[in-house]
Backbone:
């Protein structure tokens, strides 16, 4: 095993030492492009938050996998909404920085749920610069198959703008 590792390192040095000087200027660009591609792959996770109904709902969409959890819709849970989000992400081996975009239900529904979830997401956006999209199920009235898994696709289809907040309140 040591010999294989040693030979691999020798081969790497051989490649670097024998690279024509005309190509050396492109090596940093290649490494930067590789790092950029890795970051794009990592940030493909989407977080959906719906706190306007009788349950607080979170869903992570990662490629073809989805993970979701619900919590009681109560004042105590609204006060610790960020803690619930962080715990949910940790349970799925993710951090806030691993999220590429957030989709949040803007109503109609519970005023406290809308207010707390929007303020939490605005804070995340200010700190981590994660794009968020506000949707309402009323935006997709003519759609037959409205599931949380389809929200990112529907937001794209109906051209919902980033960071647009127009909450609906039930009085």
Residues:
């Amino acid at each position: 095993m040591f010999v294989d590792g040693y030979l691999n390192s020798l081969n790497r040095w051989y490649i670097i030492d024998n690279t024509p000087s005309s190509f050396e200027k492109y090596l940093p660009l290649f490494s930067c492009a590789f790092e950029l591609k890795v970051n794009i792959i990592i940030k493909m996770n989407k977080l959906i938050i719906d706190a306007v109904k009788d349950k607080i709902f979170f869903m992570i969409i990662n490629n073809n996998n989805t993970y979701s959890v619900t919590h009681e819709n109560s004042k105590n849970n609204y006060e610790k909404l960020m803690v619930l989000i962080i715990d949910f992400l940790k349970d799925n081996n993710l951090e806030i920085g691993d999220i590429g975009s957030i989709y949040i239900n803007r109503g109609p529904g519970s005023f406290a749920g809308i207010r707390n979830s929007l303020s939490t997401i605005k804070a995340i956006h200010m700190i981590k610069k994660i794009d968020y999209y506000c949707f309402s199920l009323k935006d997709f009235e003519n759609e037959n198959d409205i599931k949380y898994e389809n929200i990112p696709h529907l937001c794209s289809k109906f051209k919902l703008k980033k960071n647009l907040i127009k909450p609906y309140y039930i009085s």
